[in-house]
Amino acid sequence: MARQRPGDSGAPTMRDVADRAGVSTMTVSRVLKEDARVSEATRRRVLAAVDALGYRLNATARSLRLGGSGMIGLIVTNLANPFYSRLALGVQEVASQHGLSMLLSNTGEELERERGLVEDLASRQVAGMIVVPAGGSHSHLTPAALRDMPVVLASRPPSGMAADCVLVDDFGGARDATAELIARGHRRIGFLGNPPAIHTGAERYRGYRAAHEAAGLEPDDRLVRRGLTDVATAERAARRLLAPESPESPASPGSPESREGAREPAPDAPTALFCTNNRLTQGAIRAVRALDVPVALAGFDDFDLADILGMPLTIVSYDADEMGRQAARLLVDRINGGPAASRPPRRTVLPTHVIRYGPE
Amino acid sequence: MARQRPGDSGAPTMRDVADRAGVSTMTVSRVLKEDARVSEATRRRVLAAVDALGYRLNATARSLRLGGSGMIGLIVTNLANPFYSRLALGVQEVASQHGLSMLLSNTGEELERERGLVEDLASRQVAGMIVVPAGGSHSHLTPAALRDMPVVLASRPPSGMAADCVLVDDFGGARDATAELIARGHRRIGFLGNPPAIHTGAERYRGYRAAHEAAGLEPDDRLVRRGLTDVATAERAARRLLAPESPESPASPGSPESREGAREPAPDAPTALFCTNNRLTQGAIRAVRALDVPVALAGFDDFDLADILGMPLTIVSYDADEMGRQAARLLVDRINGGPAASRPPRRTVLPTHVIRYGPE
DNA sequence: CTGTTAGCGCGTTCAT
DNA sequence: ATGAACGCGCTAACAG
Description:
The structure is a homodimer of 360-residue chains.
Chain A: H1 14-21, H2 25-32, H3 40-53, H4 59-66, E1 71-76, H5 82-97, E2 101-106, H6 111-123, E3 128-131, H7 143-146, E4 151-154, E5 164-168, H8 170-183, E6 189-192, H9 199-214, E7 224-225, H10 231-242, E8 272-275, H11 278-291, E9 296-300, E10 313-317, H12 320-336, E11 347-350, E12 353-357
Parallel strand pairs in A: 1-2, 1-3, 3-4, 4-5, 5-11, 6-7, 6-8, 8-9, 9-10
Antiparallel strand pairs in A: 10-12
Helix pairs in contact in A: 1-2, 1-3, 2-3, 5-12, 8-9, 10-11
Chain A binds a DNA duplex (16 and 16 nucleotides) through residues 5-8, 13-15, 23-27, 29-30, 33, 37-39, 42, 57-58, 60-67.
C-alpha cells in the first residue's frame, strides 16, 4: 500500500480509464475534449469508466504538454485594504469568465517579496500577471525579465518600462475634492498625504495644488504633511495641524497626547483637511472627533458608513471592482493577442466622482 | 521565427543550460537544487549559463515529475467582506512560510460554482484546500470525492463528512453580547439574523436565546427576524421592529418608507437589537440613525470606525487573520502528515471577545 | 562528483 | 473511427 513511484498519488490516469473502457488513451482524450469523431458507443463506455474510476484530468500534465497553465497571477500590496480586495474580486470575475484561475499574493509593500513572487509566477507558467507594484524598481517586470509574459500594472504606472496599466484619475479626483472645499469657502486647507514616492501620493498632491491655483490661491506649506502611511500617523499629524498649541516638541512631558476636549482651533489652523486615502481619512476623522473642532474633511476612497458619521465629508470615489475587471481585460487581450511587444501599451484611467456626505 | 512546437514559449530549458555549460541536465538540476555534491567549478559554469540565458526553472514540469504543485487552494464565499479578505491574508502568510502559493477563488455563495472550483483545484494537483463552504451539500468535499486530498473548512463546519475545520465561537460570542445587553437592563432585545440554514445563523441565534435563558428571560419571537442577507434587508427589518406603526402591509401607498424623523419608539418596540454579522449591524445602524430612536445595538464582527459612531455599540470581535493562519496550519499539518484518513479530524474554535463602544 | 536511463500524464502527429 | 509512438521539461534511481 505504500506509494510506488514518487508523485504517484494513486489517482487513476487516462491510461487506467482507457484500459477499463478497452480503448486507447487517445480515445479517452478525444471523449474528454468533446471531439466529435468518436462513436457514441465507445463514448459511453469511456464516460462510464471515467465515472467508475472517479477519473479527473491532470491539469499539470496538460499544462506541461500545452505550454500554458491556464492561470494568471495577481500581486497586490495589501489585501486587507478593501480597495485591493475589491480589485481582486474584479480580476477574478473576468479571469473565471475566460477559464483562468487566479494565483493571488500579497507583498506588504515589500519590493523583495514582490520580486520573489513575480519569479514564482513566471516559473509557474502563468499566462500573465497583474501587479500593483510596491514601488522602487520595476526591472523584474520588464519584457526582458519576463520573456514577454504579459504584465498589467494596476493602481500605479510603470516606471522605466512600457506596460499596460490601469489607473484612477488621482489628479482629477484630488483636484475636484479640493475645489469643492474651496467652493465652500475654505481657504486654509491642510493636506495629509501618503508618501510622495508613491504614484498616488504624488498625483493627489498635484491635484490638491492645482485646485488652489485654479482658484488663485497658494497652499500654505505649513499645512502640508506627506509621507503618512497609516491611521495612527495620520491622526497624529491631523492633531498637530488642528491644535498647534500641542507642542510638536514635547514641552510638557506629563501628558503627551492627552490634552483633549472641545477647544477653539488655533487662529492659523486649517479649516479643512484633504486626505489622500482611506486610512489617512480615518486618522483625520479620529483627530477631529477627539479634538471636537469644526473642520471639514475631504479624502480619497469611499468607505462604509461614511454617510452616517454625522460630519461633513467630501469623498473621492471610484469603482475598485471595475479597476480589477479592466486590468483583467487588458491582460486577457494581451494574452490572446500574440507577443506582448506587438502592440503599444494601453493605459486606462478610471474616472472618479466626488460624493458629499454629512450635514450641510 | 514561428513557434515550432506547441508549448514552446522560446524559454530556455535545462537542456539549453546544460549544453552551454557543457554538462548534463542532471548536473544543472543538482546545482539548482543546491545539491552539495557538485564541484565548485562546474557549479559556477552552470550558474553562469543560467544567468546568460536567463533560465528559469519550469515549475509545471517539476510539478508533474514530483506529483505535487506546491500550491494550495482557498475558496471563500465573498472576498469583498473584510472578514474573508483578512482570512485570505492569514492563509497566505502561513502558506508562503511553507513555500506554498495560493490559488484563490470566490463563490458568491453559489454551490455550483464552489463545486466547479473544487474540481479545478483538484485537477491542478493542489496540495490541499481551505474552503468556506457556500452551504448545502458537502459531497464534493469528501475524502472519497477528493481522493484524500486534505481539506480544511473555515467558518462553517463539515456536514455529513469528517474534516478539519476552524470556527469562531459563534454561540459564545452571541451569548456574551446578548448577556451584556441584558446586564445593562434591556429586556426587549430584537434579533436580526442571517439565514438559519447557515451555521453562523443557527449558532448565533442559539447564543442569543441562551443568554435570555440564563437570565430567566424568554425572548419575544415577534422581535426575531432571521434570513437577512445584506445591509438593505437588515435596515428594513430594523425599521419595522423599531417603528411598528410603519405598516408592514402598505396601508399608505404615498410615502412607503419615508416617514422618518425623531419619534418615540412604540411601547412594545425593542430597546436593543442584536445583529449576527457586520452587514446586518450596519443596516441596524442606518435604521437607528434614520429613526433617531434610543436603541442599543450589539452585533457580530468588528468594523472600522465603530468606536466613533457616537452610539452605544456592543461588538463581538475575533481575529480573522488568525483564523486564516490556523486553517493554513491545520492544512499544512495534514499535507505533511501522510494520508488524510490517518488521523482524526481536528476542530479549532477561535475565541471571541466583546467590545463596548460609544457613549456611556 | 557526474552522466544515463526512464518515466511523470497528457496531447499531437501520423498511420490504420 | 481509433491507435502507436513520441516528447513537453524535469528529476529519482541507479551507475561509474
